[in-house]
Amino acid sequence: MKLTEILKLERIVIDFKGSTKVEILNEMIDSFVGDSRVLDIETVRSVVLEREKIMSTGVGNGFAIPHGKTNMVSEMVAAFGLMKNPIEFEALDNEPVNLIFLLVGKEDAVGQHLKMLSRISRIMNQKTIREKLANAESSEEILQIFEEEDSKYLELS
Q: What is the CATH number of the domain that holds 18?
């Protein structure tokens, strides 16, 4: 499975109304409304926000990767958020976050979930990719950046 198989254009959010971590995460989760792969959006919301309470998923360098697992998705789903104004995210490096990759997988697909988290981390650990994403002007441009990067990695099973 490739990253771009789970990240759809309509799940790339670049215009946020909120300014706090919870508000931003809720807007990203709301992007799943109408997605047939999401069986219960409120359970998805609860799983992601509860995971965030355990420990911040702000990994540093302006990037966060909130995630969770629930059988209220029929398959892995993702959303990406770009904030022009970085927000406080309780990141490991105590720096604000402007790039968020949200991943929600099925409870019984832990291996696939971990592999996808690893792929996202490898891509986002590259400073040039983070800079390209931060400077992107549209959702289409962001998806194109991910497609180019995704093509460099082997297919995940």
A: 3.40.930.10
CB 31 within 8 A of CB 13: yes
Determine the Cα–Cα distance for residues 108 and 11; give it in Å rounded to an integer.
Answer: 24
Residue of 45, 67, 69, 113 marked catalytic? 67
Provide the token pair at 118: 């690893």
Residue 157 domain flag? no
Domain for residue 105, yes or no? yes
67 is catalytic: yes
Span of 12-26, 35-49, 67-81, 108-122 with lowest mean pLDDT: 108-122
74 has a pLDDT exceeding 70: yes
Q: How many domains does the chain have?
A: 1
